[in-house]
Amino acid sequence: MHVVVAAPAKVDPMYQFTIEPLWGTQDWTLAGYNIAFTNSALWMMVAAVLLWVFMLGGMKRQLVPGRWQMAVESFTGFIDGMLEANIGKGGRKYLPYVFSLFMFILFANLLGLMPLGVVGVHPFTFTSHFTVTGVLALISFSIVLIVGFAKHGLKFFSLFVPHGTPLPMVPIIFPIELISFLVRPFSLALRLFVAMMAGHLLLKVLSSFVIDGGNAGPLWGGVVALPAFVLMVGISALEILVAGIQAYVFALLTSLYISDAENLH
Amino acid sequence: MPQIAQLSETFASQAFWLLIFFGLVYLVVGRGMLPRILDTVDQRDQQIAGDLLAAHNAREEAQAQERDWRQREAAARERARDIVAAAKADGAAQTAARLAEVQATLDTRLDEAEQSIATARQQALGELERVAAEASRDIVRRLTGAEVAEDEARMAVERVMQRG
Questions:
Q1: How close A9 comes to chain B (CA, Å)?
Q2: How many separate domains does chain A show?
Q3: Nearest by CB: B34 against A34, A40, A95
Q4: Is the four-CA dihedral A9, A15, A16, A20 of positive or negative sign?
Q5: How confident is the prediction for chain B on average, in pLDDT?
Q6: A90 lies in which domain range?
Q7: ipTM strictly over 0.90?
Protein backbone atom coordinates (compact mmCIF):
# COMPACT_ATOMS: atom_id res chain seq x y z
CA MET A 1 0.00 0.00 0.00
CA HIS A 2 1.60 3.24 -1.03
CA VAL A 3 1.02 6.46 0.87
CA VAL A 4 0.04 9.52 -1.12
CA VAL A 5 1.07 12.71 0.61
CA ALA A 6 -0.57 15.20 -1.69
CA ALA A 7 -3.11 13.34 -3.75
CA PRO A 8 -4.71 15.37 -6.56
CA ALA A 9 -8.23 16.20 -5.50
CA LYS A 10 -10.60 14.17 -7.60
CA VAL A 11 -13.34 16.75 -7.57
CA ASP A 12 -16.45 16.01 -9.57
CA PRO A 13 -18.22 19.37 -9.60
CA MET A 14 -21.51 17.72 -10.47
CA TYR A 15 -21.43 15.31 -7.55
CA GLN A 16 -22.95 17.93 -5.24
CA PHE A 17 -26.22 17.67 -7.16
CA THR A 18 -26.57 13.91 -6.64
CA ILE A 19 -29.75 12.87 -4.90
CA GLU A 20 -29.36 10.11 -2.30
CA PRO A 21 -32.08 8.39 -0.34
CA LEU A 22 -31.51 8.75 3.39
CA TRP A 23 -31.91 6.36 6.26
CA GLY A 24 -32.96 3.33 4.20
CA THR A 25 -36.04 4.98 2.75
CA GLN A 26 -35.13 4.13 -0.84
CA ASP A 27 -37.96 1.60 -1.09
CA TRP A 28 -40.79 3.90 -0.04
CA THR A 29 -43.41 3.97 -2.74
CA LEU A 30 -46.73 5.67 -3.27
CA ALA A 31 -49.04 4.47 -6.03
CA GLY A 32 -46.12 2.81 -7.75
CA TYR A 33 -43.87 5.84 -7.57
CA ASN A 34 -40.73 5.95 -5.50
CA ILE A 35 -40.95 8.59 -2.79
CA ALA A 36 -37.71 7.95 -0.92
CA PHE A 37 -36.85 10.62 1.65
CA THR A 38 -33.73 12.02 0.00
CA ASN A 39 -31.14 14.61 0.96
CA SER A 40 -33.12 16.96 -1.27
CA ALA A 41 -36.29 16.31 0.74
CA LEU A 42 -34.32 16.77 3.97
CA TRP A 43 -33.20 20.27 2.94
CA MET A 44 -36.71 21.15 1.83
CA MET A 45 -37.73 20.24 5.38
CA VAL A 46 -34.88 22.29 6.86
CA ALA A 47 -35.84 25.29 4.72
CA ALA A 48 -39.50 24.93 5.73
CA VAL A 49 -38.67 24.62 9.43
CA LEU A 50 -36.22 27.55 9.37
CA LEU A 51 -38.78 29.66 7.54
CA TRP A 52 -41.35 28.73 10.19
CA VAL A 53 -38.90 29.70 12.97
CA PHE A 54 -38.11 32.95 11.20
CA MET A 55 -41.79 33.77 10.89
CA LEU A 56 -42.37 32.91 14.56
CA GLY A 57 -40.22 35.93 15.40
CA GLY A 58 -42.72 38.09 13.56
CA MET A 59 -45.66 36.72 15.53
CA LYS A 60 -44.97 38.75 18.67
CA ARG A 61 -47.40 41.29 17.24
CA GLN A 62 -45.99 44.15 19.24
CA LEU A 63 -47.09 47.65 18.48
CA VAL A 64 -43.48 48.78 18.53
CA PRO A 65 -41.65 45.94 16.74
CA GLY A 66 -38.32 44.53 17.85
CA ARG A 67 -35.53 43.81 15.37
CA TRP A 68 -36.73 40.35 14.44
CA GLN A 69 -40.36 41.34 14.07
CA MET A 70 -39.19 44.31 12.00
CA ALA A 71 -37.21 41.96 9.73
CA VAL A 72 -40.22 39.68 9.18
CA GLU A 73 -42.50 42.65 8.59
CA SER A 74 -40.11 44.15 6.08
CA PHE A 75 -40.25 40.89 4.07
CA THR A 76 -44.05 40.73 4.17
CA GLY A 77 -44.23 44.44 3.35
CA PHE A 78 -41.81 43.96 0.44
CA ILE A 79 -43.90 41.21 -1.20
CA ASP A 80 -47.14 42.99 -0.32
CA GLY A 81 -45.85 46.13 -2.03
CA MET A 82 -44.72 44.15 -5.07
CA LEU A 83 -48.16 42.55 -5.50
CA GLU A 84 -49.87 45.88 -4.93
CA ALA A 85 -47.71 47.52 -7.60
CA ASN A 86 -48.06 44.70 -10.17
CA ILE A 87 -51.58 43.40 -9.67
CA GLY A 88 -53.31 46.23 -7.87
CA LYS A 89 -56.00 46.05 -5.24
CA GLY A 90 -56.82 42.41 -5.99
CA GLY A 91 -53.21 41.39 -5.37
CA ARG A 92 -53.62 40.67 -1.69
CA LYS A 93 -55.41 37.37 -2.18
CA TYR A 94 -52.31 35.96 -3.90
CA LEU A 95 -50.03 37.19 -1.14
CA PRO A 96 -49.97 33.91 0.85
CA TYR A 97 -48.85 31.98 -2.24
CA VAL A 98 -46.33 34.49 -3.61
CA PHE A 99 -44.90 35.18 -0.17
CA SER A 100 -44.52 31.44 0.57
CA LEU A 101 -42.92 30.98 -2.84
CA PHE A 102 -40.45 33.83 -2.40
CA MET A 103 -39.44 32.93 1.13
CA PHE A 104 -39.18 29.20 0.41
CA ILE A 105 -36.94 29.77 -2.61
CA LEU A 106 -34.91 32.42 -0.80
CA PHE A 107 -34.31 30.15 2.19
CA ALA A 108 -33.46 27.23 -0.11
CA ASN A 109 -30.97 29.32 -2.09
CA LEU A 110 -29.31 30.80 0.98
CA LEU A 111 -29.20 27.48 2.82
CA GLY A 112 -27.36 25.93 -0.13
CA LEU A 113 -24.65 28.58 0.24
CA MET A 114 -24.11 28.02 3.95
CA PRO A 115 -20.55 26.85 4.63
CA LEU A 116 -21.85 23.93 6.69
CA GLY A 117 -19.35 21.59 5.00
CA VAL A 118 -16.88 22.89 7.60
CA VAL A 119 -18.79 21.00 10.28
CA GLY A 120 -19.36 17.96 8.04
CA VAL A 121 -22.92 18.73 6.95
CA HIS A 122 -23.35 19.18 3.24
CA PRO A 123 -26.19 21.47 2.34
CA PHE A 124 -28.15 20.47 -0.72
CA THR A 125 -29.52 23.22 -2.90
CA PHE A 126 -32.77 21.70 -4.08
CA THR A 127 -33.51 24.76 -6.24
CA SER A 128 -30.64 23.57 -8.48
CA HIS A 129 -32.91 20.73 -9.67
CA PHE A 130 -35.36 21.44 -12.45
CA THR A 131 -37.69 18.81 -11.06
CA VAL A 132 -38.18 21.12 -8.09
CA THR A 133 -38.20 24.47 -9.91
CA GLY A 134 -40.40 22.87 -12.57
CA VAL A 135 -43.03 21.86 -10.03
CA LEU A 136 -43.01 25.36 -8.52
CA ALA A 137 -43.28 26.91 -11.99
CA LEU A 138 -46.15 24.57 -12.87
CA ILE A 139 -47.99 25.58 -9.69
CA SER A 140 -47.58 29.26 -10.62
CA PHE A 141 -48.66 28.57 -14.20
CA SER A 142 -51.68 26.58 -13.02
CA ILE A 143 -52.76 29.45 -10.81
CA VAL A 144 -52.51 31.79 -13.80
CA LEU A 145 -54.63 29.44 -15.94
CA ILE A 146 -57.21 28.79 -13.21
CA VAL A 147 -57.55 32.48 -12.31
CA GLY A 148 -57.62 33.51 -15.96
CA PHE A 149 -60.33 31.10 -17.06
CA ALA A 150 -62.35 31.40 -13.86
CA LYS A 151 -62.38 35.17 -14.05
CA HIS A 152 -62.69 35.79 -17.78
CA GLY A 153 -63.82 32.48 -19.28
CA LEU A 154 -62.99 32.15 -22.96
CA LYS A 155 -62.24 35.88 -23.10
CA PHE A 156 -58.94 34.91 -21.49
CA PHE A 157 -57.75 33.99 -24.99
CA SER A 158 -57.87 37.68 -25.88
CA LEU A 159 -54.65 37.88 -23.82
CA PHE A 160 -52.95 36.48 -26.92
CA VAL A 161 -54.17 39.31 -29.11
CA PRO A 162 -52.48 42.48 -27.87
CA HIS A 163 -54.47 45.68 -27.84
CA GLY A 164 -54.67 47.41 -31.21
CA THR A 165 -53.54 44.48 -33.36
CA PRO A 166 -54.76 44.93 -36.94
CA LEU A 167 -57.25 42.22 -37.86
CA PRO A 168 -55.15 40.62 -40.65
CA MET A 169 -52.28 40.25 -38.19
CA VAL A 170 -54.34 38.29 -35.64
CA PRO A 171 -53.76 34.83 -37.19
CA ILE A 172 -50.00 35.43 -37.00
CA ILE A 173 -49.85 37.21 -33.65
CA PHE A 174 -52.10 34.74 -31.88
CA PRO A 175 -49.84 31.65 -32.24
CA ILE A 176 -46.75 33.70 -31.38
CA GLU A 177 -48.34 35.05 -28.21
CA LEU A 178 -49.70 31.62 -27.35
CA ILE A 179 -46.27 30.01 -27.67
CA SER A 180 -44.61 32.74 -25.63
CA PHE A 181 -47.31 32.22 -23.01
CA LEU A 182 -46.77 28.45 -22.96
CA VAL A 183 -43.00 28.88 -22.66
CA ARG A 184 -43.42 30.83 -19.44
CA PRO A 185 -43.35 27.89 -16.99
CA PHE A 186 -40.20 26.52 -18.66
CA SER A 187 -38.37 29.85 -18.61
CA LEU A 188 -39.46 30.33 -15.01
CA ALA A 189 -38.18 26.92 -13.95
CA LEU A 190 -35.00 26.95 -16.02
CA ARG A 191 -33.92 30.44 -14.97
CA LEU A 192 -33.81 29.54 -11.28
CA PHE A 193 -32.35 26.07 -11.84
CA VAL A 194 -29.59 27.29 -14.16
CA ALA A 195 -28.64 30.25 -11.98
CA MET A 196 -28.34 28.12 -8.87
CA MET A 197 -26.53 25.27 -10.58
CA ALA A 198 -24.06 27.55 -12.37
CA GLY A 199 -23.12 29.36 -9.20
CA HIS A 200 -22.54 26.19 -7.21
CA LEU A 201 -20.64 24.64 -10.12
CA LEU A 202 -18.37 27.63 -10.39
CA LEU A 203 -17.66 27.61 -6.66
CA LYS A 204 -16.87 23.90 -6.77
CA VAL A 205 -14.52 24.26 -9.75
CA LEU A 206 -12.71 27.16 -8.11
CA SER A 207 -12.42 25.23 -4.86
CA SER A 208 -10.78 22.37 -6.77
CA PHE A 209 -8.30 24.92 -8.15
CA VAL A 210 -7.58 26.05 -4.60
CA ILE A 211 -7.02 22.48 -3.36
CA ASP A 212 -4.99 21.26 -6.34
CA GLY A 213 -3.01 24.49 -6.57
CA GLY A 214 -2.29 24.40 -2.85
CA ASN A 215 -1.14 20.79 -3.06
CA ALA A 216 1.19 21.58 -6.00
CA GLY A 217 3.52 23.66 -3.87
CA PRO A 218 4.12 27.32 -3.08
CA LEU A 219 4.56 28.41 -6.71
CA TRP A 220 1.28 27.04 -8.02
CA GLY A 221 -0.33 27.88 -4.71
CA GLY A 222 0.61 31.52 -5.22
CA VAL A 223 -0.22 31.63 -8.92
CA VAL A 224 -3.39 29.51 -8.98
CA ALA A 225 -4.72 28.75 -5.53
CA LEU A 226 -4.56 32.23 -4.03
CA PRO A 227 -6.23 34.11 -6.93
CA ALA A 228 -8.81 31.33 -7.14
CA PHE A 229 -9.50 31.69 -3.43
CA VAL A 230 -9.89 35.47 -3.72
CA LEU A 231 -12.21 34.93 -6.66
CA MET A 232 -14.22 32.41 -4.59
CA VAL A 233 -14.75 34.98 -1.85
CA GLY A 234 -16.03 37.45 -4.41
CA ILE A 235 -18.21 34.88 -6.17
CA SER A 236 -19.62 33.70 -2.85
CA ALA A 237 -20.77 37.26 -2.17
CA LEU A 238 -22.18 37.41 -5.69
CA GLU A 239 -23.99 34.11 -5.15
CA ILE A 240 -25.69 35.49 -2.03
CA LEU A 241 -26.91 38.34 -4.21
CA VAL A 242 -28.02 35.90 -6.92
CA ALA A 243 -29.85 33.80 -4.31
CA GLY A 244 -31.92 36.84 -3.36
CA ILE A 245 -32.36 38.08 -6.93
CA GLN A 246 -33.50 34.71 -8.29
CA ALA A 247 -36.06 34.29 -5.52
CA TYR A 248 -37.25 37.83 -6.24
CA VAL A 249 -37.37 37.23 -10.00
CA PHE A 250 -39.40 34.05 -9.54
CA ALA A 251 -41.89 35.81 -7.29
CA LEU A 252 -41.95 38.93 -9.50
CA LEU A 253 -42.62 36.99 -12.71
CA THR A 254 -45.25 34.91 -10.97
CA SER A 255 -46.99 38.08 -9.84
CA LEU A 256 -46.71 39.58 -13.34
CA TYR A 257 -48.25 36.45 -14.87
CA ILE A 258 -51.02 36.46 -12.28
CA SER A 259 -51.55 40.13 -13.09
CA ASP A 260 -52.11 39.16 -16.76
CA ALA A 261 -54.78 36.69 -15.66
CA GLU A 262 -56.30 39.04 -13.11
CA ASN A 263 -56.43 42.19 -15.20
CA LEU A 264 -56.22 40.85 -18.81
CA HIS A 265 -54.11 43.63 -20.48
CA MET B 1 -25.43 15.73 -14.63
CA PRO B 2 -27.45 14.17 -11.84
CA GLN B 3 -30.44 16.38 -12.61
CA ILE B 4 -30.89 14.46 -15.87
CA ALA B 5 -29.18 11.17 -15.02
CA GLN B 6 -31.38 10.65 -11.96
CA LEU B 7 -34.50 12.16 -13.46
CA SER B 8 -36.59 9.05 -13.88
CA GLU B 9 -35.79 7.58 -10.50
CA THR B 10 -36.13 10.79 -8.45
CA PHE B 11 -38.75 13.01 -10.04
CA ALA B 12 -41.62 11.41 -8.11
CA SER B 13 -39.81 11.73 -4.79
CA GLN B 14 -38.77 15.32 -5.56
CA ALA B 15 -42.27 16.36 -6.56
CA PHE B 16 -43.88 14.50 -3.65
CA TRP B 17 -41.70 15.98 -0.90
CA LEU B 18 -41.75 19.42 -2.51
CA LEU B 19 -45.54 19.38 -2.52
CA ILE B 20 -45.55 18.19 1.11
CA PHE B 21 -43.12 20.81 2.41
CA PHE B 22 -44.12 23.67 0.17
CA GLY B 23 -47.74 22.84 0.95
CA LEU B 24 -46.93 23.01 4.66
CA VAL B 25 -45.13 26.31 4.17
CA TYR B 26 -48.11 27.65 2.23
CA LEU B 27 -50.65 26.52 4.83
CA VAL B 28 -48.72 27.32 8.01
CA VAL B 29 -46.68 30.33 6.95
CA GLY B 30 -48.71 31.76 4.08
CA ARG B 31 -52.22 31.11 5.36
CA GLY B 32 -51.59 30.95 9.10
CA MET B 33 -48.90 33.40 10.06
CA LEU B 34 -48.77 35.91 7.23
CA PRO B 35 -52.31 37.35 7.65
CA ARG B 36 -51.69 37.95 11.33
CA ILE B 37 -48.40 39.72 10.63
CA LEU B 38 -50.09 41.87 7.99
CA ASP B 39 -52.88 42.49 10.47
CA THR B 40 -50.36 43.73 13.02
CA VAL B 41 -48.81 46.04 10.44
CA ASP B 42 -52.23 47.34 9.39
CA GLN B 43 -53.22 47.89 12.99
CA ARG B 44 -50.02 49.80 13.62
CA ASP B 45 -50.57 51.91 10.51
CA GLN B 46 -54.10 52.64 11.62
CA GLN B 47 -52.96 53.49 15.12
CA ILE B 48 -50.30 55.85 13.79
CA ALA B 49 -52.79 57.46 11.43
CA GLY B 50 -55.30 57.75 14.28
CA ASP B 51 -52.72 59.22 16.64
CA LEU B 52 -51.61 61.72 14.02
CA LEU B 53 -55.21 62.71 13.39
CA ALA B 54 -55.84 63.06 17.13
CA ALA B 55 -52.72 65.19 17.51
CA HIS B 56 -53.80 67.32 14.56
CA ASN B 57 -57.27 67.75 16.03
CA ALA B 58 -55.83 68.56 19.44
CA ARG B 59 -53.65 71.24 17.90
CA GLU B 60 -56.59 72.72 16.03
CA GLU B 61 -58.56 72.67 19.25
CA ALA B 62 -55.75 74.34 21.16
CA GLN B 63 -55.43 77.01 18.50
CA ALA B 64 -59.17 77.61 18.52
CA GLN B 65 -59.13 77.86 22.29
CA GLU B 66 -56.22 80.26 22.18
CA ARG B 67 -58.04 82.41 19.65
CA ASP B 68 -61.11 82.29 21.84
CA TRP B 69 -59.09 83.16 24.90
CA ARG B 70 -57.45 86.09 23.12
CA GLN B 71 -60.86 87.42 22.13
CA ARG B 72 -62.15 87.04 25.65
CA GLU B 73 -59.08 88.69 27.05
CA ALA B 74 -59.42 91.58 24.64
CA ALA B 75 -63.07 91.92 25.62
CA ALA B 76 -62.16 91.79 29.30
CA ARG B 77 -59.52 94.46 28.80
CA GLU B 78 -62.04 96.60 26.99
CA ARG B 79 -64.54 96.18 29.79
CA ALA B 80 -61.93 96.90 32.43
CA ARG B 81 -60.97 100.09 30.61
CA ASP B 82 -64.65 101.07 30.47
CA ILE B 83 -65.08 100.34 34.16
CA VAL B 84 -62.01 102.38 35.06
CA ALA B 85 -63.18 105.25 32.87
CA ALA B 86 -66.64 105.07 34.37
CA ALA B 87 -65.20 104.96 37.87
CA LYS B 88 -63.01 107.97 37.07
CA ALA B 89 -65.94 109.90 35.68
CA ASP B 90 -68.04 108.91 38.66
CA GLY B 91 -65.33 109.97 41.09
CA ALA B 92 -64.87 113.29 39.29
CA ALA B 93 -68.59 113.92 39.32
CA GLN B 94 -68.81 113.05 42.98
CA THR B 95 -65.89 115.32 43.81
CA ALA B 96 -67.41 118.13 41.82
CA ALA B 97 -70.75 117.65 43.53
CA ARG B 98 -69.15 117.55 46.95
CA LEU B 99 -67.10 120.63 46.14
CA ALA B 100 -70.19 122.44 44.97
CA GLU B 101 -72.02 121.42 48.10
CA VAL B 102 -69.20 122.57 50.32
CA GLN B 103 -68.95 125.74 48.34
CA ALA B 104 -72.67 126.32 48.80
CA THR B 105 -72.42 125.74 52.55
CA LEU B 106 -69.45 128.03 52.76
CA ASP B 107 -71.31 130.67 50.77
CA THR B 108 -74.35 130.52 53.04
CA ARG B 109 -72.20 130.63 56.10
CA LEU B 110 -70.31 133.53 54.71
CA ASP B 111 -73.53 135.30 53.92
CA GLU B 112 -74.83 134.60 57.38
CA ALA B 113 -71.65 135.82 58.91
CA GLU B 114 -71.72 138.96 56.80
CA GLN B 115 -75.29 139.51 57.72
CA SER B 116 -74.65 139.02 61.43
CA ILE B 117 -71.66 141.34 61.14
CA ALA B 118 -73.84 143.91 59.46
CA THR B 119 -76.52 143.52 62.10
CA ALA B 120 -73.98 143.73 64.85
CA ARG B 121 -72.56 146.80 63.25
CA GLN B 122 -75.98 148.30 62.91
CA GLN B 123 -76.66 147.47 66.52
CA ALA B 124 -73.34 148.87 67.56
CA LEU B 125 -74.02 151.98 65.60
CA GLY B 126 -77.47 152.29 67.18
CA GLU B 127 -75.94 151.75 70.56
CA LEU B 128 -73.31 154.32 69.78
CA GLU B 129 -75.98 156.86 68.82
CA ARG B 130 -77.90 156.14 71.95
CA VAL B 131 -74.78 156.39 74.07
CA ALA B 132 -73.78 159.54 72.25
CA ALA B 133 -77.25 161.04 72.71
CA GLU B 134 -77.19 160.10 76.38
CA ALA B 135 -73.75 161.53 76.71
CA SER B 136 -74.79 164.74 74.88
CA ARG B 137 -77.82 165.17 77.17
CA ASP B 138 -75.64 164.55 80.13
CA ILE B 139 -73.06 167.08 78.94
CA VAL B 140 -75.74 169.65 78.12
CA ARG B 141 -77.33 169.17 81.55
CA ARG B 142 -74.10 169.50 83.38
CA LEU B 143 -73.00 172.49 81.39
CA THR B 144 -76.24 174.33 81.12
CA GLY B 145 -78.50 172.59 83.47
CA ALA B 146 -81.05 172.45 80.70
CA GLU B 147 -82.86 169.37 80.09
CA VAL B 148 -82.74 168.26 76.47
CA ALA B 149 -85.36 165.92 75.25
CA GLU B 150 -84.17 162.52 74.38
CA ASP B 151 -85.44 162.69 70.79
CA GLU B 152 -83.86 166.05 70.25
CA ALA B 153 -80.52 164.85 71.47
CA ARG B 154 -80.71 161.83 69.26
CA MET B 155 -81.59 163.83 66.18
CA ALA B 156 -78.69 166.17 66.87
CA VAL B 157 -76.30 163.28 67.25
CA GLU B 158 -77.64 161.76 64.04
CA ARG B 159 -77.09 165.03 62.22
CA VAL B 160 -73.54 165.26 63.47
CA MET B 161 -72.75 161.66 62.70
CA GLN B 162 -74.15 161.88 59.21
CA ARG B 163 -72.18 164.98 58.55
CA GLY B 164 -69.02 163.63 60.07
A1: 19
A2: 1
A3: A95
A4: negative
A5: 87
A6: 33-196+244-263
A7: no
